C-alpha cells in the first residue's frame, strides 16, 4: 500500500516541489493550501495531485482536513509542515496582528497538523514529520522578529516532538532553507535581495527542488535513524 503524505502549502513554491517529489517516490500526496484557488486549480491540472483547502492555523480545520484526506486517500503516514507566511516590519512598525498571524500560521500550523496525525502514526508505528524552518529562525533577520521567532520555535518543536515519537517509529526533522527563488522571496525589494545573495557562499538563490530533495530523503524508509535533526540547505549561508 502506498504511503499517504500531506504537504501543507503544497500547491505553490517550495511546497509544490515537495508535493511533486513525494508523488515521484510513489506516495499518495494531498497538497493543502489556504485560499489561492486558481493556483491550486492550475497545480492540480499540471500534476493530477489532489488538493485540499484549509487554514493550518485553525486547529479544528486541521482535524477536519486530515479526516477528509484519510477518507479520500487513507491513513496519513507523512506530514510536511511547509505552509508559511511573512508579515515583515521592524518592531517599531510591527502590529500585534502581524505578530499573531505569523505565529498562528507558521508555528501553530506545525502543532495543529502534528496533533491531528500523531496518534494514528503511533498506532501504526511509523511516521515522518518534516517541518520547514528557516535560516532566519537560526540566525535572526532584521525586520522579522515575528517570522524569526516562529521559525526558531519550529526548530525547538522538532527536537521535542522527535523525542516523543522516537520509540514509535516516528521521526521528526526540520529543514532550514536559505533564500529560495519563490513568490515569497520575489516580495523582497531587489536592493535588499542583492545584499542577501552577496552573503551566500554559493552565490545564488536556491531552487525549490533543492529543498524538496532533502524532504524526500527525510520522508523515505531509509531515514529511520535520522530524527530531531535540522538540515541546512542554504548554499553555505549558515556559516556566516
Ligand atoms: P509561498 O508564499 O511561495 O507559498 C506558500 C504556500 O503556503 C502556498 O501554497 C499557500 O497557499 C500556503 N499557505 C499560506 N498560508 C497558509 C495557511 N494558513 N494554511 C494553509 N496553507 C497556507 O512560500 P514559499 O514556497 O517561499 O515558502 C514555503 C515555506 O518555506 C514557508 O514555510 C517559508 O517560511 C519557508 N521558507 C521559505 C524561504 C524562501 O526563501 N522562499 C526561505 C526559508 C524558509 P495559497 O496558495 O492558498 O496562498
What's the CATH topology label? Answer: Rossmann fold
Indicate the structural class: alpha/beta
Overall CATH architecture: 3-Layer(aba) Sandwich
Question: Can you write the helix and strand succession as a string?
Answer: EHEHEHEHEHHEHHHE
**How many distinct folded domains?**
1
CATH superfamily: NAD(P)-binding Rossmann-like Domain
Q: How would a crystallographer describe the biggest sheet?
A: 7 strands, parallel
Average pLDDT number: 97
- Main-sheet strand order equals 3-2-1-4-5-6-7
Q: Which stretches are low in confidence, meaning pLDDT under 50 for 5 or more residues running?
A: none
Strand segment tally = 7
Shape field: globular
Say which molecules are bound, naming each kind only once: NADPH dihydro-nicotinamide-adenine-dinucleotide phosphate
Domain Ketoreductase: 3-178
GO molecular function, one term: acetoacetyl-CoA reductase activity
Family: Belongs to the short-chain dehydrogenases/reductases (SDR) family.
InterPro entries: Acetoacetyl-CoA_reductase, KR_dom, Sc_DH/Rdtase_CS, SDR, SDR_fam
Amino acid at each position: 500500500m502506498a504511503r499517504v503524505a500531506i504537504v501543507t502549502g503544497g500547491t505553490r513554491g517550495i511546497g509544490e516541489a515537495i508535493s511533486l517529489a513525494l508523488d515521484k517516490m510513489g506516495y499518495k500526496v494531498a497538497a493543502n493550501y489556504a485560499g489561492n484557488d486558481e493556483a491550486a486549480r492550475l497545480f492540480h491540472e499540471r500534476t493530477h495531485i489532489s488538493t485540499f483547502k484549509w487554514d493550518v492555523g485553525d486547529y479544528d480545520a486541521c482535524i477536519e482536513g486530515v479526516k477528509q484526506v484519510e477518507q479520500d486517500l487513507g491513513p496519513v503516514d507523512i506530514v510536511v509542515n511547509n505552509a508559511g507566511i511573512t508579515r515583515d516590519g521592524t518592531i517599531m512598525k510591527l502590529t500585534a496582528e502581524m505578530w499573531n498571524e505569523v505565529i498562528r500560521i507558521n508555528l501553530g500550523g506545525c502543532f495543529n497538523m502534528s496533533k491531528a496525525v500523531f496518534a494514528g502514526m503511533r498506532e501504526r508505528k511509523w511516521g515522518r514529520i518534516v517541518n520547514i524552518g528557516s535560516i532566519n529562525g537560526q540566525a535572526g533577520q532584521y525586520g522579522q522578529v515575528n517570522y524569526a521567532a516562529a521559525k526558531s520555535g519550529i526548530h525547538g518543536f522538532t527536537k521535542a516532538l522527535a523525542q516523543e515519537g522516537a520509540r514509535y517509529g516516528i521521526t521528526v526533522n526540520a529543514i532550514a532553507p536559505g533564500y529560495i527563488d519563490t513568490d515569497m522571496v520575489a516580495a523582497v525589494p531587489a536592493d535588499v535581495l542583492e545584499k542577501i545573495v552577496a552573503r551566500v557562499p554559493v552565490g545564488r538563490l536556491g531552487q525549490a527542488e533543492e529543498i524538496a530533495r532533502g524532504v524526500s530523503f527525510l520522508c523515505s524508509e531509509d531515514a529511520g535513524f535520522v530524527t530531531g535533526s535540522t538540515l541546512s540547505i542554504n548554499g553555505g549561508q549558515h556559516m556566516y
